[in-house]
Every structure is written in structure tokens, then in C-alpha cells.
Design a protein that fits this description.
Number of domains: 2
Number of helices: 4
Largest sheet: 3 strands, antiparallel
Strand order of the largest sheet: 1-5-2
Structural class: alpha+beta
Order of helices and strands: EHEEHHEEH
Strand content: 15-25%
Length: 151
Amino acid sequence: MDIKHEVTQPESSLLASYPDYLDAQRLVDRMSDDGFPVESVRIIGDGVRTVEQVTGRMTRGRAAVTGAASGAWFGVFIGLLFGLFTAGSSWIWFVLISLVVGAFWGAVFGFVAHWTTRGRRDFASTMTLQARRYEVHVDKEQAAQAAKYVL
């Protein structure tokens, strides 16, 4: 037996359209500050695409340093957890030793992970989602009241 669940949204009306998200966010924030029932508002991104911003060259050394930093944070976390079960000031040694061990293994894994790509991805980047435009929609019942917020 195949059961389908549909999420139905109330019928909505386009209130405004903006080229960037911050403008749409400002409108909804202004509405919220004025006490408008923002539960009836939706911001819809239209024409969504991914944008990858290259942040720099990735070398084996940089991969090792990045891995060491991540490993050090993980080591500190583990050291603090073990430190909770110690008496006196010996918890500091747990944290320091865990930091060093975490940084070492993080560097090793970072280096090896980059080395195994054999140059297929020699750059670092961040990925974001962007939309061509952002539309602010409001439930039909609230449309007349919401219209006063559009300049």
C-alpha cells in the first residue's frame, strides 16, 4: 500500500520581488518589527544555482596544516572530555596531549587525503546557493494588510 502525504500551503500572493536576499529579509524584518503575523510570509528563491568561490591554491603542505588545525580542535574536545573525569590539575595534560596527538594525526590524514587526489583538485573553495531573485509571498488572507509594507 502506497501512502502519499502532501504538504499543502495556503494560497499565497506575491508581495515583492528583489534581486538579493538581504532586501527580502529587510522587508520581512520590518513587517515583524511592526507586529505583522510573519508566520504567513515566505521568502522564495527563484532560479537557484550553486556558486563555488575558489579561495586559494591547495598544496600538500596547506592540506597538512588545515588537517592539523582540525585535528587539534578535535583533540582539545577529546582532552576536555577525558579531563572531566580527572582530579586536580592533571586535566590540563589531557588537553595538551590530546591537542598534540590530534594535530599530528590531522596533519597526516590531511596530507594523505590531498595526496590521493593526484592533483585533480589543487584548490580550496567554499560553495553557496544563490538565486536569481527572491520573492516575498504572503497568504491571501493577509495580502491587503501586507501591501502597506512595500514601498
